[in-house]
Design brief:
By secondary structure, the protein is mainly beta. The protein contains one helix and 14 strands. It is globular, with a radius of gyration of 15 Å. Bound molecules: FE2/S2 (inorganic) cluster. The site of FE2/S2 (inorganic) cluster has 11 residues, from loops.
Amino acid sequence: MERRKFLQQSCKALLVVPLGAGLASCEGLYYVAEHSYKDGVVSIPLSEFEIVKEGKSKKRKFVLYKSEKFQFPICVYRTGKNEYVSSLMECTHQGCELNVAGGAYSCPCHGSEFSTQGKVLEGPAEYDLKTFETKTDEKNIYINV
Ligand code: FES
């Protein structure tokens, strides 16, 4: 199945989701519960990526963070063992909120797609997503917003 069709079909249900809840994923959405903010930097504990179910531990691929500074959430995507990319979920074409699905971001408005690094994969969007400097240590992720 063509990637674009897969994304459209697998997230078709999102079209009926009420406004403001448009960001969705086939993996399930998780907005960070624990975080702090100081001097323009958001700290999110790495434990926010952990899922413990029936005694087994697993890591989420991404979490969402809602900043008062932006209309749309920031998606913090785990791209490597200790590597994260934080992208604003605002499509650079005409400003729709993006969905997270199939290891990419897709726009429900006109079909643009972006990599989890925030790069345009498919138009009509011409510009990459706004991304934020993101660092980690052994306990936290730090996002410069
Ligand atoms: S607003 Fe996203 S593709 Fe047009």
